[in-house]
Amino acid sequence: MTTASETDRIERSILIKAPREHVWRALSNAEQFGVWFGADMAGQTFKPGQRARGRMTMEGMEHIFLDVVLDRIEPQDLLSFHWHPYPMDQTIDYTQEQPTLVTFTLKDAPGQGILLTVVESGFDQIPQHRRRQAFEMHEGGWEFQLKNVERYVSQ
């Protein structure tokens, strides 16, 4: 797994030894995405311009929703969405904040599998009082989630 980050963006990559179609399906199918990400996305679909929302299923996070608005879908290559990072406080209306952009890209790694990269950008637009914590939580969160998608696809 590789790592690169600045104050405004987080970038993480992982090499997955699986067919491209399997990795793509795990990203682009909302219900499969929810399984490895830890959210109940039953009945949801990923389509550009549309919102997909599901309750988190990880212990201690059941009060939070995965809530995304799909941006771009380029089959087998790229999927991106906007969301509000680290929305832990139920008393805050995060819709008043500028969302970050999450972009997944797939690249062939000949003889090795698929290089999956996730970039989350736009942290500099988050209100100052919660920017650092959101950034730090997502730095570790993306490492965790890339390992989850790798496990899911490898099953």
UniProtKB/TrEMBL annotation:
Question: From what superkingdom does this record's organism come?
Answer: Bacteria
Coiled-coil residues:
none
Domain (Activator of Hsp90 ATPase homologue 1/2-like C-terminal) spans: 17-153
Query: Which Pfam families does the annotation name?
Result: AHSA1 (PF08327)
Q: What InterPro entries does this protein map onto?
A: ASHA1/2-like_C, START-like_dom_sf
**Family named by the database record:** Belongs to the AHA1 family.
- For this entry, the protein name equals SRPBCC family protein
